[in-house]
Amino acid sequence: MKTKKIIAAILAMSTAGILISGCTGGDEQQGNVKLKYIMPGPGIQENSKAVWEEFNKKLGEKLPGITVDFEIIPLAEYKQKVMLMMSAREQIDILNNYGLDFATEVGNGTFTVMNDLLDEYGKDISKALPEWIWDYETIDGNIYGIPTYQMMGQTRCICFVKELADQYLDLEALRKAIDSSPQWSQEVYDILTKYCEDVKASGINFKSTSILNLKGLDTITGPYGVRYGDEGCEVVNVYANENSDVRYKTAREWMEKGYIRQDALSCTDEADYNGKIDGNLFWDEVYSPYQADILTEQYGVEIITVPYDVEPYIGMKALAGGTSITESSAYKKEAMQVLNLLQTDKELYNLLVFGIEGEDYTVESEGRIRTSYDSSPTANDSYGLYKWIVGNSSLAYNIQSEPDSYNTWAFEEVNNSPNRSYLMGFQADTTQITDMLSQVSSIVTQYLQPLNVGSVDDWEGNYNEFKEKLRIAGEEQIIEELQKQINEFLENNK
Questions:
Q1: Of all residues in the chain, what percent are helix, strand and coil, respectively (each to 5)?
Q2: d(CA 450, CA 444)
Q3: Could you report the per-residue pLDDT of 72-117, keeping only the tens digit for each?
Q4: Which residues are registered as beta bridge partners of 322?
Q5: Hey, is 70 helix, strand or coil?
Q6: Could you give the domains of the chain?
């Protein structure tokens, strides 16, 4: 497989909110089954109770005697809260596994095996999702979750204000340099550096910029990922490998020249300066063919985008996780029946995701709605959940920021791409390296961001210190263990 056909970018998503809960009551009342469903989401919203009451009413028409008690936990708190709930043996029947250590929880017996449940009560799900996607939630032939189905590509893009890029950026050279290297090269950064210099020389004092998001690596666990090449798969620390020098050197040079703002390490308003002539000179976003148009409408100034990767690529790991049924649930059959509907019934899915028509959204045309948000709902919106968390987002309405052809692109073009990782479905067993991974995580937290924004005077000395601490923490053993597991996976899946 050619290197440029097996590269991937890191997709980073973030949100905020607060803990919310739906209906109250015990596991079973008057012979009826009440399921507890836990997922991350945007936080408490004005219309949550009304939406969930309507959902249970509709559900009762299809599955009499079954209701769902939803509990939505803020994304940043999700893993910790779920761990505490499980330690306290609280009732959980359906659990979204996004952000959890999937393989570890499978090993701990947290999730039930779904194979027979799917065969008997989830046949519609099996028909609705492509066969290859089940690898993401399968370990040793057993399915432990329903994989989130969304646009499965992982490409990001660099965004520019067109007015500036047309005058000062060699766009053709940039595209060629990006395409010619699986990771960010010195050539790419040299082109961007000249862009910064020329804009500055023109008298435009832009606010800031930043080094680019990671490219060309599939993530495994923690800061470790796989780099593909002609010789196969190589495990590396994505923040400390031979390609990292150019990142940190460039970040320091840009900070010294004023291309990165001096308070970059502590500022929280970076996004406020996107799309402004005197704002951020360039920034990155998740890529789609429509992103430039979406951002142009959002900022009121024409934006152009340059994708990290030329072709759609589907990585080894489903970054959006999936939905599991707990082994402790007394209602596994009923839980699967609910998921079978929620993953295939457009009315129920969109009711849970978008709320009630006329209260939480308005209909613009068939399959197209207008919400109070353009991307993701927040606690300040009347209602809205993350469509990718709920599950099969091919069922979702298009909102005003999405073109009518979005689903065609996402589910027929990108998701049908043959350009998929041959490590798809690999799940790292971190049992033997858990303590070392914890130490490495603390070290990364200490060193990474100052290097990324160029805030340390001696970037090279700081980077060498970073690598030495990683070595002492056991990085060589971690990489050796992960490489061994990957080699065994490849050997067993020839």
A1: 40, 20, 40
A2: 10
A3: 999 889 999 999 999 999 999 999 999 998 988 999 999 999 999 9
A4: 147
A5: strand
A6: 20-151+317-414 (3.40.190.10)
